Amino acid sequence: MKFTVYKKIMLGFGAIITIVIISSSYILFELNTVSNGAKNILNSNVQAQELARQLQTIIQDENEYAEKYFVSNDETYLSLCIETSKQVDLNLKILLDKQSSKKDQSLIHRMQKAHDSFVAGVQEKVNKESNPNTVQSQIRHKNMSILLNSLDVLITKNQSFIGKEMGRIESITTRAVEVALVLIAGTLIIAIAAALIITRTITKPIGDLIKGTEQIAKGKFDKILVSSHDEIGLLADAVNDMSSKINDINELRSQMMQQISHELKTPLQAIQSAHDILKISEPVKHHQIQLFDIINRSVDKIANFSQQYLDLTKIESGAMRYNMELTDIYTLIEPVVDDAKIVAGSKHINLELNGVEVPKVMADAEKVSIIISNLIGNAIKYTPKDGKVVVSISPGGLGVQVKVEDSGIGISQDEISKVFTRFYQVNNTKKKVSNGSGVGLAIVKAYTEGHGGKVYVDSSLDQGSSFKVEFPIGTDQVSIIPDN
Description:
This protein is of the alpha+beta class and 484 residues long. Helices cover 69% and strands 11% of the residues.
């Protein structure tokens, strides 16, 4: 079953809401139990307890009125005794209704019989109008003792029951609080876990998609693998389709440009051969020699561009091969600088080579020469008349560092990250310079990384530029820098 992002979010919220409902229902159930228990205690046992205490007082008053009547024969005390007797009967009936235990009900019945016997004894004395004898007095006292003792027993039992019920309610309350805390903590943990899981199922595919698109931007068209089957998975499929089409177009373009580069070699060689033959033919006039030189430079320019683009195509396809050998970097760079001094001199630019002792490097001599030549040529191109270009060799982070600094027009901070992009031309409206092919610095970066090295650039507008390339060292041998 496929879960969309919407379904995942709703499922997570649904799970959290369900857990909250369950925990809330349990808490409400426990609170209802506590409430019912407290209500039962208040409505039954506490009232019965209070009624029993009142009965104790009323029965004692009844007994006192009877004794006074027996002594004084005062009808007032008899009336009070009879009235009190009725209250006792009524309260005993009420007390009987509040008892749920058969044992307690039997105790109330016994109290009623004892009270009836007590009242009968008083009534007997009234009917006979004689002083009560000792036996009758003993019977009354016995019945009164039964009443009072039974009330004491009932009060004690009610107190014990109330204590137990309050303990049970306290236990339920404590358990409810503990369970509520556990449920709250569990709900919080589950909510956090659900949020993390849902977030992870959404953000991880997005992260994979972002990494994949970054690789596409770098020219790597590997398929983006996303395990999600929601909208993000559909987006990844669309990006993969787009990447595949871009890759196909790129491969077609590379094949076409490679074929064009190869096809250009034959006519260029023919033009170069014709140029050489015509130049040595007799007689050649001065203006013809100038035309021959223009033809020669144009052919060289096209040939160099064709070769560099062909090399870029090989690098992209992984077909570029490096002839690595232990190389003295200074000996390799010195002739490149000497050749560049001719071009620099024509623009009145001072070109210098400085260096210190550095280890030898494992390098492809031809490609390192192209790296340095491109950097120097680029520096001369963007340095105005009477400027300065300095090439320096020194130890670097990876082993050996070659730095090319110029006093040229510089590069804006916005464009520094783009200078190694193929066919990119630095846009400087303040200075007008001849445009190049736009592949020179791309070749520098590709060749340097092919050696396991790194290339850096530091520049500001009108402050010149500094390009640094670093190469890994080969052995502990040291390049010897001449005194000059």
